[in-house]
Fold:
Amino acid sequence: MTPATQLWVYLSSSPLLWLTVTLAAYAVADRLSAAAGRHPLANPVLISVAALVALLAATGTPYNVYFDGAQFVHFLLGPATVALAVPLYENRRIVLKAVVPVLGALLAGGLTAVVSAVGIAAALGAPPAVLASLAPKSVTAGIAMGIAREIGGDPSLTATLVIATGIIGAMTVAPLMNALGLKDWRARGFAVGLASHGIGTARAFQVNPIAGTFAGVAMGLNGLLTAFIVPVVMSLFRT
Amino acid sequence: MIPALTLLLACQLAGEATVRLAGWPVPGPVLGMALLVAILLGRDRLRPGAAPVSDTPLGAVTRVMLANLSLLFVPAGVGILRNAPALASNGLGLATALVVSTLLTLLVTALVFRALSGRLDGSGEPNP
Structure:
């Protein structure tokens, strides 16, 4: 074996390479997003994922080899969800004052997210297993994958649909809310956190801390609600 | 910093353990988040003069995590590589469902929130 081949064999069997590349891709994507003035279309998740997919395809690296390295980043999704407790605690008075709109918007939005997605995909001919993978698309990856597994979906397809939903919501929330003339940071944040989980919440924190807090609240509450309503909605679609 | 990280992990661990033992359909990290809010409220009661949470290591750790929340979704996003066949064979239906449903959800959630909040502009802040 040549030294270059030996190096590649070492790197491709160690988590070091792909962990480093994941962080580097995100660092560059975040710089690009900042340079674009945090324009919603310059979404750092979209840029990083596109770059990494191209790189994995070009080097013929299978996803499981990539994930051996990237899992250390993926793992932090859990502690980061717990970390949302701090902005929630700090803004507890503002959140408690809005308890009626929070609960009303949660019910209306959570139902809309599941019923509209499953209804549209069913009308366009998607098979039941794909519908089951799609139903929890608006909640954060770990929760959505658990729901999909329970109702006969494919968790890995769910993860992809969840990330796509997050990116779509993060990109469209600002133009949509501006078009509506909706300036309440609580409503804007709550909507993007409910529709687009952590990626929407990350976007909301970039724009305004109150929006970020309400997004975090929406993401947590909708994770709960969706776990309860998806099995019910899916049983209605099957009959 | 290490005690702060330990606290976050311990809350998640307690959350995961509780939902499994009790068989609740609640995600473990979400219960962990609720537990941490309860701990912070308890801290207020027991030590009324303590420094604000944002000035503690826990405040610093959570700020760094939440400022870089997007990064944590990148590995799952790259998983699109594994699903290319399923996505391609249902491409139109899934793309339409994702875009329309996400826009509709944003719209319904924000409008219901506004209708129930009774105030047209709660923050009073200008819109960029």
User: Anything to note?
Assistant: Helices of chain B lie at 2-22, 28-46, 57-67, 74-78, 84-89, 91-117. Confidence is low (pLDDT under 50) at residues 120-128 of chain B.
